[in-house]
Amino acid sequence: MKLTPGANESYPSMLVPRVWANPRRFNFDNIGDAMLTLFEVLSFKGWLDVRDVLIKAVGPIHAIYIHIYIFLGCMIGLTLFVGVVIANYSENKGTALLTVDQRRWCDLKKRLKIAQPLHLPPRPDGRKFRAFTYDITQNIIFKRIIAVVVLINSMLLSITWIKGEVHTERLVIVSAVLNFVFVIEVVMKNIAFTPRGYWQSRRNRYDLLVTVAGVVWIFLQTILRNDLSYFFGFMVVILRFFTITGKHTTLKMLMLTVGVSVCKSFFIIFGMFLLVFFYALAGTILFGTVKYGEGIGRRANFGSPVTGVAMLFRIVTGEDWNKIMHDCMVQPPYCTPGNNYWETDCGNFTASLVYFCTFYVIITYIVLNLLVAIIMENFSLFYSNEEDALLSYADIRNFQNTWNIVDIHQRGVIPVRRVKFILRLLKGRLECDPQKDRLLFKYMCYELDKLHNGEDVTFHDVINMLSYRSVDIRKALQLEELLAREEFEYLVEEEVAKMTIRTWLEGCLKKIRAQNASKQQNSLIAGLRATNEQLMLLKAPEDKTPTTGGEKPPGSATAPCPPTSDAFSPTFSSTENEEKDASGSAAISSTADAHGVQRVISATKRAYALNRSDSTGSSAGRKYLAPTTSDPQQRSTLTDKERLHISSQQKKKNSMTAVPTLPPVVAASGAVIKRDINRTSGYFASTNSDGSQFHYPPNVTNHYGEQHGPLGSPSAIMGHIIAGSKLLPFNNQANAVYEVHDWWQEQVICTLYSDDEG
C-alpha cells in the first residue's frame, strides 16, 4: 500500500457536510442533556473535552465553571457520599451506636478471634545439639539474614533471562545457591523442631513447598535448559517472595488486613458478581447488534454474555464507561435502521441511559464504597493505638508464648486441669496471682470446668475467659451480653462458695473423726489397764486360798489361756437360761467344779461375740477383741437359727439404757457371796416378763448345765471397769463394755483353771 500518490494521482477525496452541530457526547441545550453531561463529569470522565469546548466557544473565563464543579461536586460531594455510605453501614451493623469502651471491646473480640497458637515447639533443653540449633533458628539475626536472601532472590527477576546468554547462566547459578541456603534453613528447623513440630505451622509448610519446588527447578535446569525450566524458575522466585510477608510484623498485619477484609466482604463481592452477570445478560439482549464505535469494538462489545461480563468489569473500574454508553445510543443517520432487532445496528437511547447510569451508581458509589468501609474498619483494627486497646498485641503474644509452653503436643487444646498452670505463668494485663487473687483464680478455673464439663479446652476458650476477667464488663459489654455474663458469673461465684464451704466442712469433719478415734482408743486402753489392775487385786487373795480339788478331772487336758484375740462372748440363749435359773434360786454355791470350768471354757469358745463399736474396730481394739458377727467369715459359720437368735438378742441389748454401780462380789476365798433375788435384780432391772430387758445374776447355770465363775456376769465386772459411773447410753459405750467383759471373763476363767492345775 502506497502512502504517497504517484504521478497523475491524488489523495482519495471524501465529501463531509459542513453543518452546525453539537459535540458528539455532550451538550447543554436542555436540562436533561446538561444533567447527563455533569453526571459524566462527576465520574472524572470527559471533563477535559467539556473544558476545551467551553474555552473555544465562549472564552477562557467560562472554563472556571467546570473547575468549580469538579472541586465542589467530585472532591467534596463524592467524599461526603462515601462518608454517608460508611456511616449507614456502621449504623446497620450497630457499631455507630456503641460507646468508646464498647467499640474497644468489639475490636478486642475481633483480635482474639484472629489470634492463633504459635505452633512453635518448646526449646528441647534435654538435647544439647537440638537446643543449640533451636537458638540459632529463633535468633533475630538469623531471621533477618533469611529475609535479605529472599529479597536478593526476588531481585533476580529484574533482569531478563534469555536462553543462551552468559548473564542468564550466572543468574541461574546465583538462584541455585540461594535455594541451597533455603534448604539449609528447612533442615535446621526440622532438627530444632522435629518434623512433627515443623509441620504444625502453616508458614513452615509453605516454606517447605517452595523449597522443594526450588530443588526440583535446579534438577530441571540442569537436565533440560529450555523455556519450561526457565518458566518454572520464575514461578519459584515469585512464590518465594511471598514468604517475606510472614517475617515482618508490619507486612504480616497488612496481609492480615487484606485477608480479613476479603473474608468479611465475601458476600458483598459475591453479590457484585451476580449483579455483573445479570447486567451482562441484559446488555447482550439490548445492545448485542450495535455497530462499533469509539468505545465498542472487537474486544469490547455485548455480542455474547462472556464479552458482556468483560465489558462490565471494565466499566466497574470507570474506564471510558461514558463512551460505551454513547455508542449504545447511536441513532440514524449514524446507523442503519431495520425492520426488526436482527436487521438493525442502531442503539436505544433510553435503554442505554437507564442501563449504564444505574449500573455505574450501584457498583461505583455503593458496592465499592462498602468494600472501602470494610477495609477501613479492619485497617483501624490492626493499626489502632496500643494504648487505647484493652489488650495490646504484646499481651496477646505473651499469652501465645505461655500457651506454647503448656501445650507441649501443639494440638491447640489442653486438659482443663492444666489451665491453672497457664494462669500462674501469665504476665502483664492478663496476670493472675494465685496468692493475692485467690478467689478470682478459683472463679476462672471453675468457669472453664463448668463450660466444658471437665473436658479439653481450646486456645480461644482460655483467652476469651481471660478477656472477660480483664475488663470492666459493665462499661465494655452491651446490655444483653452484660446481663448474660453477670448471671453466669453469679452462678460461678455461688458454686465456688459452696465448694469452699464444703471443703472446709469436710476438713473439720476429718479432724473431729480423728480426734474421736484417738479418744476412743485411749479410753479403751485405759479401761483395759484398769481391768488388769483389778485382776491382779483379785488374784492376790485367791493365791492364799487352797484349791478344793487336787486332781484333774478325767478327760481334761491342760489348756493354756485363750488368746485375747479369740475371746468370745457368751451366748444370749445361755443368758436367758441364767435369768430363769437365777429367779428360782436364793443363793449360789461357793465352790466350782473343775469339769464345769472346762465346759464353760469350751462353751465360751463356741459362743459368738457382740458387734464391735467404732472404737473397738480400730487397730488398738482389734488387738484385744475377738471377731464379731459383722465379719464375713464369722457370719458364714452361723446357722439360720443362731442368726435369728442374735438379731433378737441384739434388739434386747439396744433396749437397755443404763448400767448401775455394782457392789463388790468376790470374797477372799474366791467364792461368790450369796445375794437375794431383790439385790440381784437391782443390777439389771427386769420390769416385764416378756424378756424385753434381761439381767445377769451373780451365779447362774447355762443350758449346758454348768455354772459361771464368780465374775461370770457383766454386772460383776462393770463396777470395776467403769468405777463411779451411774448411767451410760447403750450405744458404742455399751458395746465396748460388753466386749471388754467377755475378754475379762475368759481371763478370769483361765486364771481359775491355772489355779486348779496348781
Description of the molecule:
By secondary structure, the chain is an all-alpha fold. Helix 11 crosses helix 12 (305-316). The protein contains 28 helices and 2 strands. 23% of the residues are buried. The protein is elongated, with a radius of gyration of 54 Å.
Largest sheet: 2 strands, antiparallel
Number of E-state strands: 2
Anisotropy-based shape: elongated
Q: Which spans have pLDDT < 50 for at least 5 consecutive residues?
A: 544-637, 656-733, 753-758
Mean pLDDT: 74
> How are strands sequenced across the largest beta sheet?
1-2
Beta-strand content bin: under 5%
Rounded to the nearest angstrom, the radius of gyration is 54 Å
Which helices and strands, and how do they pair?
Elements: H1 31-42, H2 47-57, H3 64-93, H4 100-114, H5 128-137, H6 140-155, H7 166-199, H8 202-223, H9 227-241, H10 249-264, H11 266-287, H12 305-316, H13 321-327, H14 349-382, H15 393-406, E1 413-415, H16 419-425, H17 438-452, E2 456-458, H18 459-470, H19 473-476, H20 479-544, H21 572-584, H22 594-606, H23 619-622, H24 632-636, H25 640-655, H26 677-681, H27 714-721, H28 732-757
Antiparallel strand pairs: 1-2
Helix pairs in contact: 3-14, 4-18, 5-7, 6-7, 6-9, 7-8, 8-9, 10-11, 10-14, 11-12, 11-14, 13-14, 17-20, 20-28, 22-28, 27-28
Task: Give a short synopsis of this structure.
The protein is an all-alpha fold. It is built from 28 helices and 2 strands. It has a two-stranded antiparallel sheet with strand order 1-2.
